[in-house]
Amino acid sequence: MKRLRGAIVLMAALALLATACGGDTTTTDTAAEAEARAEAQRQSAAAAEAEAMAAEAQAEADAAAADAAAAMADLEEAQAALEATMAAAEAGDAEAQAALEAAEAKAAEASDMAAEAEAMAEAAAADAEQAQMELEMASMVEAPEIRAAEVAMGIYPCCADLAYWQIPIELGWWDELNITITPNSPTYHYFTASQEIVPWLQRGDGDVAQAWVPGSFGTLETFGQTLPPIHFADIYVGYAILVDPTSDAKTALEFMEEGMSFSEAATAAVQQLVGKEVHIPPHSTTQAQYSDAFFAYLPQWWEDVQEDIPALDGEGNPLVLLGRDGTPVLDDDGNTQPIRITTNDWRNYSTPVYVDDPTIVQLSAVAGRIEFAMPYGAPTLVQMMRNGWDPLINFAMMYEYDAASQQTAIASATVGGTGLLARREWVEENKDLTYRIISVANRIFAQLEDPDTQYELWEIEANLINEKRQLEMEPEDIGIIWDTIDPSFNWEDQEALWDLSMPSYHPETVFRTQIEKLKAGGVLSANYDTQAGLEEFLLAQELYYDLKGMQERSDDLFARASGMDLSESQQSLVDQAQVFYDRYNFYDSLRFLEAALIG
Amino acid sequence: MTTTDVLDVRAKARRDKRKRQSLFILYLTLGIAIFLGVWQVLSVWFPLYFPSPLGAVRHFTDNLMTSEWTRRWFAHANACPALIGSGADIPPYCSGYVLHLLVTTRNILIGAALGTILGLAAGLGSLVFPKIAEVFTPVASFFGTAPIFIAAPFFVIWFGVDVALLTTVGLITFYTTLLMYFFSRRAAENIPVGIIESALTLGGTPRSIFRWVYMPGTVPEIAGGFRIALAGAWGLGVLVEVLGIQRGGGFLIAMWRFGVGLVEWPAAVVALITFFGVLAVIVDGILVVGIRFLTRWAESGRRLGL
User: Fold this and answer.
1) Do A359 and B243 touch (CB under 8 A)?
2) CA atoms within 13 A on the CB side of A375
3) Are A527 and A340 within 8 A, CB to CB?
4) What string of DSSP letters covers B23-42?
């Protein structure tokens, strides 16, 4: 036993030494993790000791059983001799009588020995059972707590990329995470207008809200940095200028049918807007660049340019036009062509009529009242198109027929999408809740892409939008929006979002251009530090890499668990961790795995 | 025989009047000072939502004639519709607040004036021709008891957002007509029966009684009603513009709503709201002076504005 204990102490010391002198990962461990590991090793040593004790007790029990078996054999032999002697005695042999007595005495002695050996074997078996119980107790693990918490959350249910948060409410996913949504429990605080979102968060009434991320760039000099995005949901590419079905104006596609190239057709189509009114929501004033992409087809657009706005990548290099294959488009002289974002404004050619999306729909219901409209909400767009309004021109046409043009580059370089804005202070105090909320977003997008589940989710969204916006969306309309107008970023897509070396939409690059445009327009100060501001603002990037790290560590632990002989309680935790992992909750997945395998 | 000289009585009355006027000015100044003080404190506590009083004034004066903010951000040719589609460069004054504010003021005054004429015609006319009251009163009662702003969105949808004459002016005229109809009827009903009976005993006919009793007798009460109707018209006119009309102070407020978080946002919104408050007070003050002059013969006219 002393040797065994000495060996355990030596192993523990070696393990501690290895921990102290470990590689890169060890040097980055926190004190808490080191302490947890030491505790785990102490527990492991205790378990090993208990196991050794159990083995020793078992060996003793085995030996006692062997002794009992030998005693039993002697007893049986004595009894056989006794029976033979008794038979001889019956035959009247005096010697046999004496032998009989001797045999009886031996048999009694053997019987006593057998009883003693049996008692010893029972005691040894009890000891072995006790040692086994101690061993199991030593390897028993407990599930980490998922704390009950309230999250004040709001959504503006105008559109598919905002209303999707209704899904976890209706499917009970928040309950699984022990989260209670407030202040309008059991559902969200529903905004009636987009401009209510940011003040609601800023006042501290809410913790988290889904919003149009570029819409808050104008606040970067006031409180924008206190409400950073923690997750990016989608990119909106549904921008279109719609034309009244009774109008004589032709769409770009109709011009193409007359034999024009797309570029010529787009120019002819947009030329019809010059001097006309375009009905557009008021918040377009902070997002005018999308209309600019259409009006850049006008020849006079480039003649009127007064100032170019830098369109740069993260390293300060100018963004250049790229073809469909991702390679730079070269001019006749073989030079790359920089993307030109300018201070020119579509409102120099057409007159905006600022009315919100529902009013646009109402006005469009009267034939001939308005001729051109550019609704910003996808449901409004879909509803008007169903009512017969055609896209004079839209981003989809540009991407399909004119992908390598300056106009499409303007569109790509300036588009945006929705994301979760959160109070920075709240995020810092509630990292666990932040990770869980992000996991729910990723879970929703996974199920929205799953043919087996997506219809139910579309239906939930359509019902909410119809109720709140007085529209008549079908579930399939929501599917069309996600497929063609609002492509979402699922968990796998998020990597390309932040890795600038991967071909994708990169918020960092696109937002830099948009902020520069706001500076040029006087909305932000000319000396605003765009790079520093963006680095601070994009909290979603940091959180993504946190979760990515958790996912990778979970993968490692799952692999380790598969090669181990786990106790029942350990296996239960690993199974729960797998459920969390499958739901993109890498934070709790890792916690449960560490509890199961490390302690 | 009294021992008090009549001149002393008059002197005392003048002293009392001067004292009252001095106290009035003192209390007025005190009230304004408290208001500005609270405003200033709010601007320190909530700088993102409340500008300082001076900041609001500065924004207003900086943007009154020409505004770089509106020019760059949203206004363009809205204030100068004649230039839309002309291809001409938009002059800087089109971006200033002044054109928008003048449009709103004009529309509200036109709407209030039209409504007053129509309401008085219907109300007083019903005194001469009671059938008018039988036809008009049920409908007027229905709309008169409905919340004043409830029809605003419908006017925007019915008449669109481009022709303010029908939407803003139309809505203000509609409600002013209803209010003035009821005020004129009530004013006539409040004339003591004894006066009417005296007129009848003197041989008055319905028309002569209308001309010489009802017309002058209802003026003081109608004037009070007009002040109430005009006060409501300011709010109604600006509200309709906020709902989508493309010119006017309400339009400016509607656009600035989307600027929450911009450095200039609090000053812009508070300055515009304050402007309409101050404008309404000034117009009401002018109205009081005019009504006092017209109704100086009546007790209510003399007490008006005290």
Assistant:
1) yes
2) 29
3) no
4) HHHHHHHHHHHHHHHHHHHH
Nearest to B261 among A198, A351, A359 (CB): A198
**C-alpha span between A207 and A179 (Å, rounded):** 13
Do A390 and A243 contact (CB within 8 A), yes or no? yes
Q: How far is CA A572 from the centre of its chain?
A: 23
Q: Chain B contacts of A282, Cβ < 8 Å? A: 74, 254-255, 257-258
Of B72, B84, B261, which is closest to A351 when you measure between CB atoms? B84
- The C-alpha atoms of residue A243 and residue A265 are separated, in whole angstroms, by 15
Q: Is B83 on the interface with A (CB under 8 A)?
A: no
Which residues from A are below 8 Å from B258, CB to CB? 194-195, 282-283, 285-286
Report helix angle A491-498 to A539-562, nearest 10: 130
Per-residue pLDDT tens for A425-437? 999 999 999 999 9
* B255:A353 CB<8 A: no
Minimal CA–CA distance to A113: which of A61, A63, A69? A69
Average pLDDT for chain B? 85
Listed residue (B113, B108, B116, B110) closest to B182, CA to CA: B116
Residue B10: its pLDDT value, please? 87
Of A198, A276, A351, the CB nearest to B76: A351
The residues, any chain, with a CB within 8 Å of residue A232's CB and separated by 6 or more, are A213, A417, A418, A419, A489, A494, A497, A507, A540
Cβ atoms of B186 and B144 closer than 8 Å:
no
Over the stretch A497-540, which tens digit does the pLDDT of each residue have? 898 877 778 888 889 888 888 888 788 898 999 999 999 999 99
Compare CB distances from B258 to A202, A224, A283 and report the shortest one's residue: A283
Q: Which two tokens stand for residue A206?
A: 């809410």
pTM over cut 0.95: no
Chain A: residue nearest B86 by CA? A275
The token pair at A249 is 């104006």
What is the predicted pLDDT for the residue at B75? 59
**Collapsed DSSP state (helix, strand, coil) of residue A393:** strand
The average pLDDT across A552-560 equals 96
SS (H, E, C) B120-134: HHHHHHHHHCHHHHH
Find the mean pLDDT for residues A345-358. Answer: 86
Rg (CA), chain B: 24
- Cα dihedral B146→B150→B156→B158 (10° resolution): -40
Residues 6+ apart with CB under 8 A from A311: A318, A319, A338, A339, A340, A341, A413, A513, A516
Alpha carbons A458 and A465: distance in angstroms, whole number: 11
Which chain B positions have a beta carbon within 8 Å of A156's beta carbon?
none
Residue in B250, B275, B212, B228 with CA at minimum distance from that of residue B115: B228
Which of A315-319, B192-196, B209-213, B242-246 is least confident?
Answer: A315-319
Lowest mean pLDDT, pick from A52-56, B63-67, B171-175: A52-56
Whether residue A375 is predicted with pLDDT greater than 80 in this model: the reply is yes
Please give the pLDDT value at position A14: 47
Which tokens sit at A595?
């509890």
Poorest-pLDDT segment among A67-71, B47-51, B287-291: A67-71
- pLDDT score for A305: 75
Q: With an 8 Å Cβ cutoff, is B156 touching chain A?
A: yes
Please report which confidence band the pLDDT of residue A359 belongs to, taking 50, 70 and 90 as the band edges.
Answer: confident
* Count of beta carbons in the 10 Å neighbourhood of residue A583: 20
Name the phi and psi angles at A228, rounded to 5: -80, 160
